[in-house]
Design brief:
This protein has 20 helices and 16 strands. Strands 10-13-14-7-15-16 form a six-stranded mixed sheet, with helices on both faces. Strands 2-1-3-4 form a four-stranded antiparallel sheet. The protein has a four-stranded antiparallel sheet with strand order 6-5-8-9, covered by helices on one side. Strand 3 and strand 4 form a beta hairpin. It is elongated. With 636 residues, it is an alpha/beta fold.
Length: 636
Amino acid sequence: MSKNKAPKRPPMKKGVLGRVLRMLFKDYAPQMIAVVICIFFTSLGSTISGPFMNILINHISTGVESGWDSVKASIFATIAVMCAIYLVGIAASFIYNRLMAIVTQGFLNKVRTRLFSGMQRLPLRYFDSTHHGDIMSHYTNDTDTLRELVSRCIPQLINSALILLLLVGNMLYLSLWLTLVICLGVIVMVIVTRKIGGNSAKYFIKQQRSMGKTEGFIEEMMNGQKVIKVFCHEKQSTEDFDRINEQLCEDATKAHRFANILMPIMGNIGNLLYVLVAITGGALILMGGVKNISLSGQVFGIAVVVPFINMARQFTMNVSQVSQQLNSIVMAMAGAGRIFELMDEQPEVDDGYVTLVNAKMVDGKLTECEERTHIWAWKHPHSADGTVTYTKLEGNVTIDSMDFGYTPEKLVLHDVTLYANSGQKVAFVGATGAGKTTITNLINRFYDIDDGKIRYDGININKIKKADLRRSLGIVLQDTNLFTGTVLENIRYGKLDATDEECIEAAKLANAHDFITRLPEGYNTMLTSNGANLSQGQRQLISIARSAVADPPVMILDEATSSIDTRTEALVQRGMDALMKGRTVFVIAHRLSTVRNSDVIMVLENGRIIERGNHEKLIAEKGKYYQLYTGAFELE
C-alpha cells in the first residue's frame, strides 16, 4: 500500500463530555473543585424546602396540640437555618458563576492554542484536501459551542445531578413508596430522552458539518469574487449557495425539531407524575393501614405528603430543565467532537535524524560550531558505531527512478530520474498537470514518494529532518502570500534573525528597493490583506526578496515571473540572475524565454521526462521542446 494514501478523517468519538471534563480538571483542578463545592451549596439551598417544610409542619402540629410556647423557639430556629442556607446558596452561586467565566475563557484560550499549534504540525495533504472555511469553522462555530458547553451546560449538569441526588435522599427520608412512584416516572423520562435526544444528536452533528461546508463555500466565493464578477457568475454562485444552505437548513430543522418537542413531552410527563404522586399520597393517607417505610420513621400524613409533592414537582422540573438544555448540550458536544477531530489528526511524520548545523574547517576537516560561519554542513550520526560525519551543504540534488501518486490508484510521476549539481539551473517545462510542481513539492518533502530515491548532497532526504531540509531550500511561488505587518517584516519572514541591512540588501538584489523607498513609509509601510495596496508585480518582488534574505543553496522558482508585466519582468530577471548565481536552481516556467539560459531543460509529459538537454540541443532535436518554442505546439 502506498504511504501516500490520504489518511481517513477520524470518526466522531464517544466520550466527548468525559474528555472535556478531564481537560478542565487537568488544567483548572483547584477552580473546578471550588466550582463543584459552590454548586453543592447552591443545590443544597434549592432542595432544603422539602425537609424544612416537613419539620415546620411537625412543629405546627405540635403547637396546635400542645401549645405554641413549646415550639416557637424551634420554628424560629428552623426558619433562621433555612435563611442562612439560602444566603450561603446565593453567595455560592455568585462565586461559581464568576469562577466559571474565568475558567471558560482560559480553557478556550488553551483549546485555540492547541488547535493552532497542532495545525502547524499537520501535513500539507490535510490542507490540500480540506476546505479552509471548514477549518475556520473549528475556531468560530465549534469553539463557540464549546464555550456554551463549558460555561453553561457542564455547571447545569453538575447542578442538576447534585439536586437530583439530594432530592432522592430527601424523598427516601420521607417515604420509600412515593419514591418508587418517582422512579417509575424517571424511567419513562429516560426512555423518551434517549429516543428523541439520540435523533437530535445525529442531526446536530450533521448541522455542524453542514455549517463547516457552508463557511468553506463562502470563504471560497469571497476569495474569487473578482473572477465571479468578470465572468458574470453571480447567478450560478447564488444557486450553489442556496443548495448548500438548504442542506444546512434541513439538518438544523431536523435537529431542532427533535430537540424542541422534547421539552413539552417532558413537561407533560412531569405534570402527570406530579398528579400521580398527589393521588398516591392522598390514597395512602386515606387507607391508613399501609405502613410508611422511610428513614424518618414517620407515618403517612400531611407532614410527609405535602413536602413530597413539592419535591416531586421540583424533581420533574429539574429533569425538564435538563431536557430543555439538551439541544444546547448536543450541539456543544457536536462542536467539541469536531474540535477533537482536528486535534486528533495525525501530525506530519518526521523520522529524519540528519540535521543542518553551522560548520568550520579545522585541520582540513569540517566540524560543528556555535557561531555563524556562513558554512553549513549536514550532521549525520551513525547508530552502528556512534560516529558523526559532516557533509558540506553544496546543493547537489539527485532523483533516481522516482514514482509518485497523490492517491494509490493513480501515479502522476513515472520513473523520474535527474541530476542537478551545485550551481546548475534546471528548468521544467510542459503542459499543466505534467508534474512540474509535484517534483518540487517532493524535493521539499511536502509529500513522500512511492518508489525511488531523492538524495541531497548524497544523503537520502528521508534521513534529513524536514525543518532542516526546508531551511536549506528557498522557494518563490506564483501565488504570493504576504502577511499583516511592515514590508521589512515580510522580507524578514525568510530569515527571522536577519538584520535590517540584510533585508534591504535582499530587496536590492530582487530589484524591489526602488519601489519600496517610494512607498509612504518605505520599509515600514504596513501591509494588510495580502498586500492589497501593492500591485501583483510588487508583491512578487517582495516575495523574491523574502527568499533572497534566507540565502539558501537551492532555489525553487515556480512560475515566479508569470504574474509580472514585461517591464517588471526585466527588472526581476536581473535580480533573479544575481540570486541564482552559485546556487542550484529549479525553475518552472510557461514563458520559455525565461529558461533559455538553463543548464538543463526537462520536458515533462504525463508525468514522464520525455526530453532533456540545454536549449540549443533541444532545438536541434526538433522534438516537443522545439514545437513549444516555435509555437507549433502551445502549453495549456
